[in-house]
Structures are given as C-alpha cells and as structure tokens.
C-alpha cells in the first residue's frame, strides 16, 4: 500500500518547504474599535463648537449690503455693489480655513487616522457650517426689512440682513477642505503599513547519502 497523499488545501509538513505567509495587517484591515468611534464623535462635537466661532467671524468680517427707503419702497443703496457676493466669499474662505485647521489638528493628534475620524471631520464640518450660518443670520441685522426701514425713517441708510446666496455650496466648503487636507497629510506623512514578508522559494532537493 502507498501512503495517502497530502490534500492540496493542507500545508505540507516538509521542513524544507517554507511556512505560509502571514495575512497582511494594517489600518485599512483593522476593525473599527469603540475608542475610534468615541474619537470621531469628539471631532464632530469640537467642529460644531468651532462653528460658533466661524459664525462670529463671518458676522463681523462680511461686507454688508446697504439699503435705503424713500418712504414707499426699499432700494439698494448701491445697485452695482458686490457686497452680497462678498458675504458668500467671506464665509467660504473662513470655512476653508477652519476645515484645513481642523484636519491638521486631528492629524497631529491621531496620525493613524481611521474611518471614524474622517466621518467626524465631514459631519462636524457640515454641522459647524450650519451653526455658523444660523449665528450670522440670527444675530445680524433683522430680516424684516420693511419694519427696519420704517424704524429708521426715509432717506436713511441701513444694513440688509446677512445672507448666503449660494448656501448649499458654502456648506460644503468646510467638510471638503477638512477631508482633502487630512487625506493629503495622511498620504504624505502618515504611517506606512508594514510590507508583508515574501513567501520564500522551496529549498532545492539534495540527494541524501545512500540514495541513488
């Protein structure tokens, strides 16, 4: 009788044959831990708090649209002014800066990165932008333009309410900047996954003594 052959799916016991290579490990293959989820939530909440600062800065730095009333209607003080576009541009530039700073801080504190952190940057950036928008419009000049015009009287210049004409695009500035900057920092300065050890070639067969 002959000995049964080793099934192809089982490893050989031959000491001259190298062992199976270990499975590759790295951040991409690691499971998401509870600690990483907590870190993502913290990033989201911190970004929301920072959104209040963005709103205050936007409220104080954005150019204002000036209105005037003649007692019958309300008109732009300068019909060729670009203050309305300037308000949008100020918000977007501030949001881009906040997103870049948020990504830099997160990367410096957690170089390994992870999906929860990236989601925290994206969700926190969107939430922070919404809070900034609310602060700027709520604490700025009143939205009741007619009542404001009656209060100040005719031929008196007053400020229009602070608005975002392209609100949907402005809301994306912070999260997009945060994700792009974090991705770039991780790609350039982040830790590298260890290279898997190469699976060696089997040793050449040598004829033992006493064999022909």
From TrEMBL:
Coiled coil: none annotated. Residues 1-26 have a biased composition (Pro residues). The chain crosses the membrane at residues 41-61, 91-109, 116-135, 166-189. It comes from the Bacteria. Keywords: Membrane, Transmembrane, Transmembrane helix. Signal peptide: none annotated. Residues 1-30 are annotated as: Disordered. This is ABC transporter permease. It comes from Streptomyces nymphaeiformis.
